[in-house]
Amino acid sequence: MKKSSMKLLFRTFLIGVLFVSLQGCSKKVEARKPITTTTSSSIQQSIETNKKLNAAEEQAIENIIKNIDQKFERSANGFYYSFTKKDSTVGIQPKFGDRVTFEYDAVALNGDTIYRKEELSPITKSLDQEYGIFRGMRAALKLMKTDEEMIVFFPSYSAYGYYGDNNRIGSNTPFKSRVRLIGINLKE
Question: What is the CATH number of the domain that holds 80?
Answer without folding.
Answer: 3.10.50.40
